[in-house]
Design goal:
single chain; 280 residues; alpha/beta; Rossmann fold; 2 domains; 7-stranded mixed β-sheet; site-specific DNA-methyltransferase (adenine-specific) activity; transferase; Site-specific DNA-methyltransferase (adenine-specific); M_m6A_EcoRV
């Protein structure tokens, strides 16, 4: 792979460090696929570091998809407007909480998109979290000088011309898979402990029932419709059970959600590849 492209968003669970592992498995799954489908696109590192003719990029987070669509449609205007917020005066708790309130009160998709990028870079640890009423509630991040990702924004906007963005449930995405496609799923991960659960990324969360249902949909797509599916998740007894119909590989990754570098331990991840076997 040539030099990797970074996403413009900070993102818990982002796949930048794993794109080579993921891309090689996607190529193995279907060398001739012309479309990559991502039901959980997140920050888009896999999209940015693979070469498919078409992309269907979905996420249940409407603010994320709105941001991508606005950036795709008007990159120059978006970058110009967003850059104005990245000044020293706005790197302050009072400014941040004022903009956060403006975001939560706004129904204008463009305004929300610009503010979403500001909050992503100025909020705590790049988290994306909402309360039960749907209000963004990540606290101020206290960074010395938040980075404005101008080059990354333009790179994303250029490649996004090949992409269709949707805000649907993962089940809806699986009901409309195109022909000659391969699917990569990066769902919210199964928690490693009872206190590690992080499900408020979007209202409703992602339950263990959803995890099992996703595995069933992957089986159906691969074995009944010959559309390969790759899923990444934590390596646990339970995930190995629900992915028992897939080919499993274990890889080691560093946690990146912890603000303390010394507590970013290596954890094991599973790569579960569903692919129809010859003669099946």
């Amino acid at each position: 792979m040539s030099q990797k492209t970074r996403a413009f968003l900070k993102w818990a669970g982002g796949k930048y460090a794993l794109v080579e592992d993921i891309a090689s498995r996607l190529r193995f799954a279907n060398q001739d696929a012309d479309t990559l489908v991502e039901p959980f696109v997140g920050a888009g590192s896999v999209f940015l570091n693979t070469q498919f003719k078409h992309y269907i990029l979905n996420d249940i987070n409407a603010d994320l998809i709105n941001l991508y669509q606005e950036l795709k449609n008007a990159p120059e205007e978006f970058v110009s407007d967003a850059k104005r917020l990245f000044v020293d005066l706005n790197n302050h708790p009072d400014a941040y909480y004022s903009y956060r309130q403006q975001f939560n009160d706004s129904v204008d998709v463009y305004e929300r998109a610009v503010l979403f990028l500001y909050m992503n870079r100025h909020g705590y640890n790049g988290l994306c979290r909402y309360n039960l009423k749907g209000a963004f509630n990540v606290p101020f991040g206290k960074y010395k000088k938040p980075y404005f990702p101008e080059l990354e924004l333009y790179a994303f906007a250029a490649k996004a011309q090949r992409a269709t963005f949707t805000c649907l449930s993962y089940e809806q995405v699986f009901t409309a898979l195109p022909k000659n496609a391969v699917v990569y799923c990066d769902p919210p991960y199964v928690p490693l402990s009872k206190t590690a659960s992080f499900t408020s990324y979007a209202k409703g969360g992602f339950t263990l029932d959803d995890q099992a249902n996703l595995a069933i949909l992957a089986e159906q797509a691969a074995f009944a419709h010959n559309t390969p599916v790759l899923i990444s998740n934590h390596d646990t007894v339970w995930t190995r059970k629900i992915y028992e119909q897939a080919s499993l590989d274990q890889i080691q990754v560093k946690r990146t959600i912890s603000p303390k570098g010394q507590s970013r331990n290596h954890v094991n991840e599973l790569m579960a590849l569903y692919r129809a076997k010859a003669g099946r």
